[in-house]
């Protein structure tokens, strides 16, 4: 079955980025001149996804505005003859069918996903975390997972290997056997384990395709790590009812919710842009000399 719908949870408070995120969603922080969430929406669109639900909260109206028409700005750009800019901002509002729903209390990622139940209905759906950007020139990470779903017809979590000292920052998968051709069956998952007891070196990095059965588990999911309702725990529950797979996707992933991840994303994206790369290289060269 083709994946038509995606959910982007973006209702967290982004405490690692305070004070910038006091009155501004972290998902709207720009990577150069484009908000983070637009990269993520574009990834979903490039995977052929038609309907996108963004989970927001009352402080995140700027996300809704970003994907809406802006008549005043458009009129201004027409008057100034700024055709290229006009096309750019009109394109954003036509990019996909964007829906939003508010998570009224920040009870955790699992709870945020549960807010998508009515939107998703009874079909499998993709999840892209609002602060994880994955860059791939030709094969978007979520498309890789959607294609795996079409082959396996089971829930899939996107993983990559992370260094030993970082295992305690992620949900880590426990696999039945080592990955073969980048795929492996899941036995369980642990949220932010101590590195010394982590069941593998593969971390779930912000991309999932899930069956709607996840909502039955999320409905009754008790709070777990950090007192939050964890998606990781519900996926562990799902393993008891149906096959769940880990897929090692390719692409460079940036944790844009962390300061270093955000800086690295800005630098890498700048170094890929024809209008910026030469100047950025000179800048970096001079900085490293200093
Ligand atoms: P994070 O833990 O990275 O986001 O959640 P956060 O809580 O906003 O950030 P910090 O840790 O305080 O800096 C991963 C994703 O889940 C969403 C976040 O918006 C982010 O995209 N999320 C998290 C929700 O939508 N609701 C929640 O209750 C928690």
Provide a short characterization of the protein structure.
The chain has 290 residues and is of the alpha/beta class. The chain is built from eleven helices and 13 strands. Strand 2 (30-31) and strand 3 form a beta hairpin.
Write structural notes for this entry:
It is a single chain. By secondary structure, the chain is of the alpha/beta class. The chain has one domain: Spore Coat Polysaccharide Biosynthesis Protein SpsA, Chain A. The protein has 11 helices and 13 strands. Strands 8-11-9-10-12 form a 5-stranded mixed β-barrel. Strands 2-3 form a two-stranded antiparallel sheet. A two-stranded antiparallel sheet has the order 7-13. Strand 9 and strand 10 form a beta hairpin. It is globular. Uridine 5'-triphosphate binds next to helix 5.
The residue-averaged pLDDT reads 95
Compute the CA-based radius of gyration.
19 Å
Helix content: 25-40%
Report the span from N to C terminus: 55 Å
Q: What shape does the CA trace take? A: globular
**What is the assigned CATH homologous superfamily?**
Spore Coat Polysaccharide Biosynthesis Protein SpsA, Chain A
Low-confidence stretches: none
Give the helix tally: 11
Stated plainly, the CATH topology is called: Spore Coat Polysaccharide Biosynthesis Protein SpsA, Chain A
């Amino acid at each position: 079955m083709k994946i038509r719908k995606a959910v982007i949870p973006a209702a967290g408070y982004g405490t690692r980025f305070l004070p910038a995120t006091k009155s501004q969603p972290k998902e709207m922080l720009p990577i150069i001149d484009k908000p983070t969430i637009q990269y993520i929406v574009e990834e979903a669109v490039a995977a052929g996804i038609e309907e996108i639900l963004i989970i927001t909260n009352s402080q995140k109206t700027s996300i809704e505005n970003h994907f809406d028409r802006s008549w005043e700005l458009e009129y201004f750009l027409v008057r100034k003859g700024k055709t290229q800019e006009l096309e750019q901002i009109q394109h954003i509002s036509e990019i996909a069918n964007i829906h939003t729903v508010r998570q009224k209390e920040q009870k955790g990622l699992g709870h945020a996903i549960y807010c998508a139940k009515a939107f998703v209905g009874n079909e499998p759906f993709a999840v892209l975390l609002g602060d994880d950007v994955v860059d791939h020139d030709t094969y978007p990470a979520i498309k890789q997972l959607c294609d795996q779903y079409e082959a396996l017809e089971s829930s899939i979590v996107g993983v990559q290997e992370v260094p030993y000292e970082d295992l305690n920052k992620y949900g880590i998968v426990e696999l039945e056997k080592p990955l073969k051709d980048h795929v492996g069956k899941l036995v369980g998952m642990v949220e932010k384990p101590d590195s010394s007891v982590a069941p593998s070196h593969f971390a779930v990095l912000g991309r999932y395709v899930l069956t709607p059965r996840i909502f039955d588990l999320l409905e009754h999911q008790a709070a777990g790590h950090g007192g939050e309702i964890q998606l990781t725990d519900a996926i562990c529950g799902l393993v008891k009812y149906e096959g769940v797979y880990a897929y090692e996707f390719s692409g460079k992933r940036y944790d844009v919710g962390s300061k270093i991840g955000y800086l690295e994303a800005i630098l890498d994206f700048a170094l890929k842009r024809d209008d910026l790369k030469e100047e950025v290289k000179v800048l970096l060269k001079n900085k490293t000399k200093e």
